[in-house]
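Marked as duplicate of an earlier ticket. Keeping the data here for the record.
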Amino acid sequence: QVQLVESGGGLVQAGGSLRISCAASGSTFSNYAMGWFRQAPEKEREFVAGISWSGGSTYYADSVKGRFTISRDNAKNTVYLQMNSLKPEDTAVYSCAAGFLPRTPVVITTTRGYDYWGQGTQVTVSS
């Protein structure tokens, strides 16, 4: 089992930056592909970014490509999402997810591909 806890959300003005974190515990962190999703009010959960077990592969939604960077530190059991040039439409609850894919250099891009989910952290971008 894996437990995931997000942190670092908050309020930021458009054009600003924010880094959110996801701390994992309960299993071997490096066995899991990791991803970030977001859900705005009245909208479905949306894939944002994903990273493979070793960090060697990443993939981003078109809406955030070039602005967001996902990374992981397996020694700290933590995955990060660096968000730059934030826009009001980025406002959402951001959740991290873990999918069991040991030693596999792939990124999971679908909700159903993940096994564990965190509670989420609120990111609000003002105009």
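See parent ticket for discussion. The first strand starts at residue 3 and ends at 7.
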